[in-house]
Design a protein that fits this description.
InterPro entries: CAP_dom, CAP_sf. It holds the Pfam family CAP. Residues 88-195 form the SCP domain. This is SCP domain-containing protein. The chain has ten helices and four strands, in the order ααααααβααβααββ. The protein has helices at 8-14, 25-39, 41-46, 48-60, 66-69, 76-85, 98-114, 127-132, 151-160, 168-173; strands at residues 95-96, 140-146, 182-190, 194-202. A four-stranded mixed β-sheet has the order 1-3-4-2, with helices on both faces.
Length: 212
């Protein structure tokens, strides 16, 4: 359906983390892919998301319960995503922030160290308590993904949000309601899931520019 491909200008526009030397390449690419969704969600659906689904299905083919694991075009999460993602067109982009990424990293390391899979820290703090210390009185949210270290896998997994009826991860990536525009990212090892990725989102004043 989409013979059209992404342009260099679109990639350059989406790559707001290009000079953020406190992030790894995969962490920078998480922000790149989220921004591509926000530039043209429908195009992302028919290009990168289709690639992700094809790769995922080829990986799980070796399992006996392949028919249960595979992602089909009739999957209700896949179908509902098309409805949600087509309205994503030229939305405001996310910009990385070093302090917010440091908070994301701290939580991802805590999850790894204590073998947790929750938004709460090992000391019982909720994500809003962690973030509001440095970003008081701002709209905020958090996504956590388990099992992937590849940026495209992480973003597509959160976007599909299979098995999450609230679709909270998806709606953070497509957010317009809270005007989230600042993001912190960290990918870390995890004892139970091999990998975990923490993405923290904050709404900053529009005159805000990210630190390099």
């Amino acid at each position: 359906m989409f013979a059209q491909t992404w342009t260099d200008a679109e990639f350059k526009k989406a790559n707001t983390a290009a000079n953020s030397n406190y992030l790894s390449n995969e962490e920078k690419n998480i922000i790149l892919y989220i921004n591509l969704i926000r530039i043209d969600g429908e195009k992302f659906y028919y290009t990168f998301l289709e690639d992700y689904i094809n790769n995922y299905n080829s990986k799980v083919k070796r399992y006996r319960n392949y028919n249960e694991l595979k992602l089909t075009k009739t999957n209700p999460y896949y179908l509902s995503l098309l409805k949600h993602i087509t309205v994503a067109k030229n939305l405001p982009l996310f910009y990385p922030d070093q302090r917010l990424s440091s908070l994301s990293r701290g939580h991802a390391i805590d999850l790894n160290k204590n073998n947790l899979d929750t938004h709460e820290s090992s000391n019982g703090n909720k994500f809003s308590q962690r973030l509001s210390k440095y970003f008081p009185n701002k709209p905020m949210s958090e996504n956590i993904d388990f099992g992937y270290s590849n940026s495209l896998d992480i973003v597509c997994h959160l976007l599909l949000d299979c098995g999450v009826p609230s679709l909270g991860h998806r709606f953070n990536l497509l957010d317009q309601k809270y005007r989230l525009n600042t993001v912190g990212v960290s990918i870390q090892p995890h004892p139970s899931y091999t990998w975990c990725a923490v993405l923290d989102f904050v709404a900053q004043p529009t005159f805000y520019t990210s630190n390099p």
